[in-house]
Structure formats: structure tokens, C-alpha cells
Design a protein that fits this description.
Elements (H helix, E strand, L loop, with lengths): L13 E10 L2 E5 L6 E4 L7 H7 L7 E6 L13 E4 L10 E5 L6 E9 L4 E4 L9 E10 L1
Antiparallel strand pairs: 1-2, 1-3, 1-9, 4-9, 5-8, 6-7, 7-8
């Protein structure tokens, strides 16, 4: 007899899903108009607070969660602002990828100020310190 149990999201699950992360200014990520995303829980692809909302959901679920300011990506941290080389030409709003010190990955910083003497980067997540809406459609759970 075939197993008709619906798969549910657990720690370490591999997911195929559409999702949207948005804040007060609108969408940051939205896969609903493109191909779905695939990711594994617990690997840092989603914030821990967002992953917690997924645990226990059944394959095929479409739902939305509102997370209060600071819960999804922490509070804004002024120590995450760093000055860069003023000879590099950036515009406010540019997002620049930097290699990690060990060279195995990268991280992004957004230009928040630029003048003739310095460029200031913000390495906070764009939704840090803001309320977040997370909408998800679980297509597959392994």
C-alpha cells in the first residue's frame, strides 16, 4: 500500500519553494514570478527566525508570516558601517561584493554615503531592524 503521508518541514529538510521577503519599502526577494528556489534548512540560506516559521508546515502549503522589527535579521548595527577607498567611484545605493578574509566566500555592503574623501558601506542586511513579511509556497519537501 503506498505511503500517502504528506511530507512536513523538519530541521535539515531540503525544500523547493517560492518565497517572498518584503519590508516596509517592498520586496527584497521574490521568486513567485520566476523559477522556484531550492535550499536546505540549517545552512544559513534563510534567517533562523524565518526557518522557525517553516518547521512543521506540510508540502503544498502557501502561507504568509509577519515578523516584528528586528526579529528576522536583527537590529541595525552601527558597527556594521565601514569606510572604503575614496578613489573607488560608487553611488549611494550601490551594492558591492567583497571577498571574505579567507577567500572562500563573499559578503555585500551597500553604499550609504560617498564623497571625495571616503565611501561609507553598510553591511547590515537590508531588512535589519525592520518588520518583515515572509510569504512561502512549499512545492517539495525532502
Amino acid at each position: 500500500m503506498p505511503d500517502t503521508t504528506i511530507a512536513r518541514v523538519e530541521a535539515g529538510s531540503f525544500l523547493t519553494l517560492h518565497y517572498r521577503l518584503s519590508g516596509p519599502a517592498g520586496d527584497i526577494i521574490n521568486t513567485f514570478n520566476d523559477k522556484p528556489a531550492t535550499l536546505s534548512l540549517g545552512t544559513g540560506e534563510l534567517s533562523p527566525a524565518v526557518e522557525q516559521r517553516l518547521l512543521g508546515l506540510a508540502e503544498g502549503t502557501r502561507t504568509s508570516f509577519d515578523l516584528p522589527a528586528g526579529e528576522a535579521f536583527g537590529e541595525r548595527n552601527a558597527d556594521m558601517h565601514k569606510l572604503g577607498d575614496p578613489l573607488e567611484k560608487y553611488n549611494v545605493g550601490d551594492v558591492v561584493q567583497f571577498p571574505t578574509p579567507d577567500g572562500t566566500g563573499s559578503y555585500a555592503g551597500a553604499v550609504i554615503d560617498s564623497n571625495d574623501t571616503a565611501v561609507q558601506f553598510d553591511f547590515n542586511h537590508p531588512l535589519a531592524g525592520q518588520p518583515v513579511t515572509f510569504e512561502v509556497q512549499l512545492i517539495g519537501v525532502l
